[in-house]
Amino acid sequence: MSLGAHVIERQGYWLNLVVVGWADAIWVAVVVLPGYVDMFRGLLPPAIYMAGALLTTYAQRQRSTRI
């Protein structure tokens, strides 16, 4: 993989992370906080997202130190 492709891949990763995080924040603000779903059920998807984001970011950083 060329250096340019690596930069584009990294930018795409962060863009996806921000967009999905934004969507989860909107979910919490519009559905969970007004009480349309109970707190546990409503916060479970964002919690899974956060765990996945932390683990994949850790993996991305480990990978970037090898390149």
Low-confidence stretches: none
Determine Rg (CA atoms, Å).
16 Å
State the helicity in percent bands. over 70%
Mean pLDDT: 88
Taken from the alpha-carbon principal axes, the silhouette is elongated
Number of helices in the DSSP assignment: 2
Strand content: under 5%
Q: Calculate the terminal CA-CA distance, rounded to whole Å.
A: 10 Å
The SSE order reads HH
| Main sheet record | none
Q: In total, how many beta strands?
A: 0
State the secondary-structure class: mainly alpha
Report on the structure:
This protein is an all-alpha fold and 67 residues long. It is built from two helices and no strands. The protein has helices spanning 3-32, 39-66. Helix 1 (3-32) packs antiparallel against helix 2 (39-66). It starts with a helix and ends with a helix. The model has no long low-confidence stretch (mean pLDDT 88).
Concise synopsis of the structure shown:
The protein contains two helices and no strands. It is mainly α and 67 residues long. α1 runs antiparallel to α2 (39-66).
Topology:
Blueprint lengths: L2 H30 L6 H28 L1
Helix pairs in contact: 1-2
